[in-house]
Amino acid sequence: MSNVAHFKATINFQKLVEGYLEGYRFFVLEGSSRSGKSVSVCDFFYWLSNELAGENKVFRCARAEYTTVEKTVYNTFEESLIRKGIYNPALKRMKPLKYFLNGNRFEFIGLDNAQKAHGLEQFGIWVDETVAYRDWE
User: Fold this and answer.
1) CA distances from 128 to 24, 36, 52 (A)
2) Rounded average pLDDT over 81-100
C-alpha cells in the first residue's frame, strides 16, 4: 500500500503549508462548526509526515478530555486517511491511542490530566476546539 495520496486541498490546508514553508510554527484556525478546520489540520499533518518520512517525528493531536479523543480528533484523522486510500488498521494502537505513518508517530491525547501531558516533546501538536481552554490562563 502506497503512503502517497492525491487529494483536493482546502484553502486552510494551502495556508498551513504556505505558512510552514515561510517559517511559521504556530497556527490558529478560526471558523464555524463543520467548516473544515480539523480536516485541514489532518491533511497538513499527513503532508508533514510525507515531508519528514522516516524521521521518527511525534505529532500529537489533543483535546480537552481524553474520553472524547477517539470519537473526535482520531475519527477525523482516520477518515482523512481512508479518503486518501491509505488507512491501514494494522498501524493503529489503542492504549494509548497512536497511529504510525511514514516512519512518524501520531499520538492522540487528552489534556485533562496535566501530569500526563506536562513535558512531552513533539514536532507538532494540534489542539482541537481551543475554545474549551478559555479559562486556562
Assistant:
1) 19, 12, 23
2) 93
